[in-house]
């Protein structure tokens, strides 16, 4: 998103408090979300309340979300039966034999018309198993070393099952289903079945055997109602979508490998009263998809497991059209309670049109766009997120970090408080601004190439620029003013965040508060961006260290209760140059080595005290333990003194920040 150049001192503290629960009734599958996870997008209410964070001027917005329960078709009796009641179906190349009148055989097509338990074994070279029953009892199909191919349609077609169909993979068995690459339908207005394993009604896949499904025409596995996969091992290859449960897709304790030309897994019921939902627990999921990896119209909930997902060829592949190639996507809400994730995606790795809660898990994300994007709200409570490459790291209108260790390496903004509607990867929004390039960087202002920022009068013929230092609207190529949305909010209440960004380190079109945790920012080296960019940023606790360029640099707001120091160097320091701050006794308050050249650095720490004197130093080395450039413990040696400053206010400055008038103003000596 483009830089908002002038900030507005609006103090807003965030507090997300809500509880979310998902349960499956009439089913042995159930889960309860951790109580610390608070928001999804199913139902949102907000209210303004007084904050107790220490800043009496602050307000907070409470976001409460109620999630939709998943009521599956699964029942305890689905997996128990009497072996003596089994009905044998033999597949013998080009013919089928059965021992019951409940099976109607027509050449190489067997139609099951009665409820019961059917044990299939053998090979069917070109045929089909059809289920068409109006009896309100389960139909079980036990696959025991079964191979079925069809040259004109689906391998298994559940036309009708008044109750449900349960496919059981016999222990130790290897089973394969393959459909035609082109289907032959009875008329032009018929387009189903369209998957190798297709069901018009509820479907369950269960058992310790292995099932390979080759969807050569369209989807591999598809249910037009609900789909439950439990204790199963599936290998899925699909021309389009791998596994589809229209109403819901529930996966428990299974291993699933998917290669698909469309989405890997999806639940796409778009009925507002019953949006398609995905829930995955204790499973291993490997997906290589040309579309989205996991996608639902409603909520996606992941409780535990291992997930390796690649979409669109990975993060290094440019998207050539409007195709969606996200890793895990929800049009409603996304809830992650745990698991190990390795996502390499051409588009967003995690995406929600509503809200995202991350209550736990180890996530490694490589994205061609956003690492994590939520239109409404993003809350992170635990455990670790490593975004190794992305355009923007975390993006949402409301962002709350309560815990977790987070690393972000971004080619643009590291953390972006925005609804994403104004994001552009070109410089055309600044097309009529003199000196504006076509990239994402804003031009340097001032003479002789120095990094300085003028008031609006220096913009001359820019419409909207005036003499009082305000700029109501930049015109774009269309002549329309850019909307400056100040509704975005950011709160950091705990955790550890390291940001390495080429654009703004933390950019919020609105307000922010930091009450705890550690926030480290290696910000931009160009003067059109800054390490921090807020309308206002109130610091009441935690450790903040943000390094970057000088042109757009900013400090925390003056109503912060925890002191901060803004340092502007006369000349940029090279990458790897140690910055340190020491108190009057020589104790090291902060020692930090930015990974890139820097000219400004902001420090706020609980160790800083009002009316105390501190020494600012650069260079030298630290004997402490280093992590992400920050040293803990140890001493600093061979450093050069830049200045000493007495903290006379909560926001204090050393040096001249490229023409910016920074709030505060400590006594420099």
Question: How would a crystallographer describe the biggest sheet?
Answer: 47 strands, mixed
Structure classification: mainly beta
Number of separate strands: 60
> What is the general shape?
elongated
Cα end-to-end separation: 39 Å
Proportion in helices: under 10%
Portion of residues in beta strands equals 35-45%
Mean pLDDT: 82
Word description of this protein:
The chain has 669 residues and is mainly beta. Among the domains are: 73-280; 563-669, Immunoglobulin-like. It contains no helices and 60 strands. The chain has a 47-stranded mixed sheet that branches. The chain has a five-stranded antiparallel sheet with strand order 51-50-53-58-60, with no helix packed on it. The model is unreliable at 1-67, 422-484 and 659-669 (pLDDT under 50).
Brief summary:
By secondary structure, this protein is mostly beta strands. Among the domains are: about 75-280; about 565-669, Immunoglobulin-like (Sandwich), CATH 2.60.40.
Task: Give short descriptive properties of this protein.
669 residues; mainly beta; Immunoglobulin-like; 47-stranded mixed beta sheet; 5-stranded antiparallel beta sheet; 60 strands; 0% helix; elongated; disordered N terminus; disordered C terminus
């Amino acid at each position: 998103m483009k830089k908002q150049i002038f900030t507005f001192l609006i103090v807003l503290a965030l507090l997300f408090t809500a509880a979310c629960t998902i349960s499956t009734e009439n089913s042995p599958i159930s889960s309860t979300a951790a109580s610390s996870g608070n928001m999804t997008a199913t139902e949102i209410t907000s209210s303004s309340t007084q904050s107790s964070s220490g800043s009496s001027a602050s307000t907070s917005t409470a976001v409460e979300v109620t999630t939709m329960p998943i009521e599956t078709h699964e029942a305890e009796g689905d997996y128990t039966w009497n072996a003596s009641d089994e009905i044998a179906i033999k597949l013998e190349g080009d013919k089928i034999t059965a021992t019951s009148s409940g099976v109607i055989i027509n050449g190489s097509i067997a139609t099951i018309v009665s409820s019961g338990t059917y044990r299939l074994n053998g090979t069917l070279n070109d045929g089909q198993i059809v289920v068409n029953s109006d009896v309100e009892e389960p139909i079980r199909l036990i696959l025991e070393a079964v191979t079925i191919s069809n040259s004109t349609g689906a391998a298994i077609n559940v036309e009708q099952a008044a109750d449900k169909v349960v496919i059981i993979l016999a222990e130790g068995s290897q089973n394969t289903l393959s459909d035609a690459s082109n289907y032959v339908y009875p008329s032009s207005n018929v387009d189903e079945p369209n998957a190798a394993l297709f069901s018009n009604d509820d479907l369950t896949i269960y058992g310790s055997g292995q099932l390979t499904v080759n969807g050569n025409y369209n989807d591999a596995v598809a249910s037009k109602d609900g789909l439950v996969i439990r204790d199963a091992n599936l290998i899925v290859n699909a021309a389009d979508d791998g596994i589809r449960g229209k109403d819901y897709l529930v996966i428990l304790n299974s291993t699933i490998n998917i290669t698909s030309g469309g989405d890997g897994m999806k639940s796409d019921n778009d009925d507002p009263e019953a949006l398609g939902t995905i829930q995955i627990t204790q499973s291993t999921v490997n997906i290589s998809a040309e579309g989205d990896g996991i996608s639902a119209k409603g909520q996606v909930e992941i409780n535990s497991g291992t997930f390796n997902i690649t979409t669109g060829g990975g993060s290094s592949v440019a998207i050539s059209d409007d195709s969606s190639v996200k890793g895990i996507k929800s049009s409603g809400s996304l809830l992650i309670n745990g698991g190990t994730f390795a996502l390499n995606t051409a588009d967003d790795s995690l995406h929600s049109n509503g809200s995202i809660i991350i209550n736990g898990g180890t996530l490694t994300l490589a994205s061609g766009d956003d690492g994590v994007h939520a239109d409404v709200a993003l809350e992170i409570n635990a455990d670790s997120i490593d975004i190794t490459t992305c355009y923007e790291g975390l993006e949402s209108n409301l962002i709350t970090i309560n815990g977790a260790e987070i690393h972000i390496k971004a080619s643009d903004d590291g953390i972006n408080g925005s609804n994403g509607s104004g994001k552009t990867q070109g410089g055309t929004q600044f097309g009529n601004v003199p000196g504006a390039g076509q990239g994402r960087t804003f031009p340097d202002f001032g003479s002789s190439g120095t990094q300085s920022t003028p008031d609006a009068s220096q913009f001359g013929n820019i419409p909207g620029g005036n003499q009082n230092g305000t700029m109501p609207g930049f015109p774009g190529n269309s002549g329309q003013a850019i909307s400056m949305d100040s509704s975005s909010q950011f709160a950091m209440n705990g955790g550890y965040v390291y940001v390495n960004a080429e654009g703004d380190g933390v950019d919020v079109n609105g307000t922010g508060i930091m009450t705890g945790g550690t926030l480290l920012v290696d910000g931009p080296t160009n003067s059109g961006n800054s390490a921090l960019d807020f309308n206002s940023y109130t610091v009441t606790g935690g450790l903040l260290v943000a390094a970057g360029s000088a042109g757009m640099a900013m400090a925390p707001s003056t109503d912060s209760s925890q002191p901060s120091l803004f340092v502007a160097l006369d000349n940029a320091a090279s990458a790897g140059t140690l910055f340190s701050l020491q108190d009057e006794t020589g104790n090291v308050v902060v020692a930090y080595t930015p990974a890139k050249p820097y000219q400004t650095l902001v420090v706020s720490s609980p160790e800083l005290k009002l009316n105390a004197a501190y020494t600012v130093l650069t260079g030298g080395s630290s004997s402490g333990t280093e992590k992400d450039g920050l040293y803990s413990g140890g001493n600093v040696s061979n450093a050069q003194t830049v200045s000493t400053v007495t903290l006379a206010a909560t926001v204090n400055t050393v040096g001249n920040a490229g023409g910016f008038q920074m709030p505060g103003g400590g006594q420099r000596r």
